Fold:
Amino acid sequence: DAGVIQSPRHEVTEMGQEVTLRCKPISGHDYLFWYRQTMMRGLELLIYFNNNVPIDDSGMPEDRFSAKMPNASFSTLKIQPSEPRDSAVYFCASSFDRGTLMYEQYFGPGTRLTVT
Amino acid sequence: GEDVEQSLFLSVREGDSSVINCTYTDSSSTYLYWYKQEPGAGLQLLTYIFSNMDMKQDQRLTVLLNKKDKHLSLRIADTQTGDSAIYFCAETTGNEKLTFGTGTRLTIIP
Structure:
């Protein structure tokens, strides 16, 4: 398997523009997570899905952020309008239920977002 | 809520052992994990330990768990330049959601 795929790898945009980040989880995984990493705040869980259904979105910063998972092989994280404080590396991760309470999350390479 | 704490930086001489420490607050943690993040990459699972164990060894890696003190450590023997990375401690209480620590940046001194 190719692992978790994220696109784009780098995104530079101007304040106020809409940004869409994309993720393809590992085939067969039924959990998908979106994280944000910054120097100041570390690694933050934004939202996660189980079988395409959002389970916990309490980490989504505000209404400017939205995430969707229309099918088992694709998810998007959208920021509209973007602001300079949204600059960060955004990671997507996927995992599956082994039935053992042990969950390994497989991370994508991340999207580095810069909002000017 | 759950809280996982780590020191931010550690410098170690090549060939020495590295010990990265982590404390957590949730006494119902079932699994505890160590993830490694190399520059420009996502996190990758390094090792994990079930909460009813107090030690796990895997080649150069030794994980120690003190459940009473809620303290987890990762020892890397014979530290090499390729071990330079950020190491994250994480815990779960038996579901799919992990709580990650702040990460410890390990720097190897030649």
